[in-house]
Design goal:
Elements lengths: L11 H6 L13 E7 L5 E7 L1 H10 L3 E4 L4 E4 L8 E8 L6 E7 L16 E2 L13 E2 L8 H5 L4
Parallel strand pairs: 1-6
Antiparallel strand pairs: 1-2, 3-4, 5-6, 7-8
Length: about 150
Protein backbone atom coordinates (compact mmCIF):
# COMPACT_ATOMS: atom_id res chain seq x y z
CA UNK A 1 0.00 0.00 0.00
CA UNK A 2 1.39 3.39 -1.01
CA UNK A 3 1.71 6.21 1.51
CA UNK A 4 1.73 8.83 -1.23
CA UNK A 5 -0.93 11.53 -1.37
CA UNK A 6 -1.15 10.73 -5.09
CA UNK A 7 -2.25 7.68 -7.07
CA UNK A 8 0.04 4.70 -7.57
CA UNK A 9 1.89 4.71 -10.88
CA UNK A 10 -0.21 3.05 -13.61
CA UNK A 11 1.20 1.15 -16.57
CA UNK A 12 3.29 3.17 -19.07
CA UNK A 13 0.46 3.68 -21.57
CA UNK A 14 -1.98 4.93 -18.91
CA UNK A 15 0.74 7.06 -17.33
CA UNK A 16 1.61 8.77 -20.59
CA UNK A 17 -1.85 9.15 -22.12
CA UNK A 18 -4.41 8.56 -19.36
CA UNK A 19 -6.03 10.84 -16.82
CA UNK A 20 -4.66 9.44 -13.54
CA UNK A 21 -2.33 11.94 -11.86
CA UNK A 22 0.64 10.03 -10.48
CA UNK A 23 3.70 12.30 -10.33
CA UNK A 24 7.17 10.75 -10.43
CA UNK A 25 9.51 12.35 -7.91
CA UNK A 26 13.27 11.88 -8.33
CA UNK A 27 15.55 10.00 -5.93
CA UNK A 28 15.53 13.05 -3.62
CA UNK A 29 11.73 13.20 -3.62
CA UNK A 30 11.59 16.25 -5.91
CA UNK A 31 10.26 17.20 -9.31
CA UNK A 32 11.00 20.37 -11.31
CA UNK A 33 8.26 22.99 -11.54
CA UNK A 34 8.31 25.75 -14.15
CA UNK A 35 6.23 28.89 -13.56
CA UNK A 36 5.19 31.06 -16.50
CA UNK A 37 3.25 34.32 -16.52
CA UNK A 38 -0.37 33.57 -17.45
CA UNK A 39 -0.74 36.77 -19.50
CA UNK A 40 2.61 37.11 -21.29
CA UNK A 41 3.77 33.49 -21.32
CA UNK A 42 7.19 34.59 -20.01
CA UNK A 43 9.10 31.98 -18.04
CA UNK A 44 9.29 33.31 -14.48
CA UNK A 45 11.19 30.64 -12.60
CA UNK A 46 12.18 27.03 -12.20
CA UNK A 47 12.05 25.50 -8.75
CA UNK A 48 11.41 22.11 -7.20
CA UNK A 49 8.46 20.58 -5.41
CA UNK A 50 8.32 17.69 -3.04
CA UNK A 51 5.09 15.78 -2.45
CA UNK A 52 3.93 18.19 0.27
CA UNK A 53 4.64 21.30 -1.84
CA UNK A 54 2.76 19.85 -4.80
CA UNK A 55 -0.20 18.84 -2.63
CA UNK A 56 -0.36 22.32 -1.04
CA UNK A 57 -0.14 23.96 -4.46
CA UNK A 58 -3.08 21.88 -5.68
CA UNK A 59 -5.10 22.39 -2.48
CA UNK A 60 -4.53 26.15 -2.07
CA UNK A 61 -4.08 27.40 -5.64
CA UNK A 62 -0.88 29.19 -4.51
CA UNK A 63 2.57 27.93 -5.55
CA UNK A 64 4.56 26.12 -2.88
CA UNK A 65 8.07 24.80 -3.40
CA UNK A 66 10.82 22.84 -1.69
CA UNK A 67 13.96 24.87 -1.08
CA UNK A 68 16.97 22.68 -1.76
CA UNK A 69 19.34 25.25 -0.24
CA UNK A 70 17.33 25.72 2.99
CA UNK A 71 15.98 22.16 3.00
CA UNK A 72 12.47 23.35 3.78
CA UNK A 73 9.02 23.94 2.34
CA UNK A 74 8.25 27.50 1.23
CA UNK A 75 5.16 29.29 0.04
CA UNK A 76 6.21 31.53 -2.85
CA UNK A 77 5.77 35.16 -1.80
CA UNK A 78 5.11 34.48 1.87
CA UNK A 79 7.82 36.97 2.87
CA UNK A 80 7.93 39.25 -0.18
CA UNK A 81 4.20 39.39 -0.92
CA UNK A 82 4.93 38.19 -4.48
CA UNK A 83 2.56 35.23 -4.39
CA UNK A 84 1.99 33.06 -7.43
CA UNK A 85 -1.72 32.32 -7.92
CA UNK A 86 -2.19 29.23 -10.08
CA UNK A 87 -4.21 29.79 -13.24
CA UNK A 88 -3.44 26.38 -14.72
CA UNK A 89 -1.36 23.45 -13.53
CA UNK A 90 -0.05 20.81 -15.95
CA UNK A 91 2.21 17.79 -15.93
CA UNK A 92 4.34 16.45 -18.77
CA UNK A 93 3.81 13.13 -20.56
CA UNK A 94 5.67 10.96 -18.04
CA UNK A 95 4.55 13.07 -15.07
CA UNK A 96 8.02 13.97 -13.81
CA UNK A 97 7.74 17.75 -14.28
CA UNK A 98 5.15 20.43 -13.52
CA UNK A 99 4.27 23.52 -15.53
CA UNK A 100 2.30 26.26 -13.84
CA UNK A 101 0.66 29.19 -15.53
CA UNK A 102 0.52 31.79 -12.75
CA UNK A 103 -0.65 35.26 -11.93
CA UNK A 104 2.37 36.86 -10.32
CA UNK A 105 1.02 39.01 -7.49
CA UNK A 106 2.58 41.69 -5.28
CA UNK A 107 5.17 43.77 -7.12
CA UNK A 108 5.05 41.37 -10.05
CA UNK A 109 8.50 39.91 -9.39
CA UNK A 110 9.15 36.17 -9.27
CA UNK A 111 12.90 36.42 -8.66
CA UNK A 112 14.29 36.77 -5.14
CA UNK A 113 16.76 39.39 -6.42
CA UNK A 114 13.86 41.59 -7.52
CA UNK A 115 13.43 40.91 -11.23
CA UNK A 116 10.15 39.90 -12.90
CA UNK A 117 11.74 36.64 -14.05
CA UNK A 118 14.60 34.60 -12.64
CA UNK A 119 15.66 34.36 -16.30
CA UNK A 120 16.51 38.06 -16.67
CA UNK A 121 19.88 37.42 -18.39
CA UNK A 122 20.55 35.94 -21.80
CA UNK A 123 23.56 33.85 -22.76
CA UNK A 124 24.91 34.76 -26.20
CA UNK A 125 25.44 31.82 -28.54
CA UNK A 126 28.04 31.41 -31.27
CA UNK A 127 30.54 33.02 -28.90
CA UNK A 128 34.14 32.12 -28.12
CA UNK A 129 36.22 32.11 -26.01
CA UNK A 130 33.83 31.00 -23.29
CA UNK A 131 35.73 32.45 -20.33
CA UNK A 132 35.13 35.94 -21.79
CA UNK A 133 31.40 35.44 -22.36
CA UNK A 134 29.22 38.20 -20.87
CA UNK A 135 25.52 37.84 -20.07
CA UNK A 136 23.03 40.27 -21.63
CA UNK A 137 20.51 41.86 -19.24
CA UNK A 138 16.97 41.45 -20.60
CA UNK A 139 15.11 43.41 -17.91
CA UNK A 140 15.82 47.07 -17.20
CA UNK A 141 15.88 46.94 -13.41
CA UNK A 142 14.62 44.95 -10.44
CA UNK A 143 11.03 45.61 -9.38
CA UNK A 144 11.99 45.65 -5.70
CA UNK A 145 15.05 45.91 -3.49
CA UNK A 146 15.72 42.50 -1.87
CA UNK A 147 17.41 44.16 1.14
CA UNK A 148 14.18 46.00 1.94
CA UNK A 149 12.00 42.92 1.46
CA UNK A 150 14.13 40.18 2.99
CA UNK A 151 16.43 42.17 5.27
CA UNK A 152 20.18 42.37 5.07
CA UNK A 153 22.13 39.15 4.61
CA UNK A 154 24.69 38.42 7.30
Amino acid sequence: MSTSKFADRPDKHQLETGTVFSPKFDKDGLLPAIATDAKSGDVLMLAYMNEQALALTIETGIAHYWSRSRNQLWKKGETSGNLQRIIELRTDCDQDAIWMSVEQQGKGAACHVGYKSCFFRAIPTGYAPLPDLQLDLKEDAPLFDPKEVYGKKK
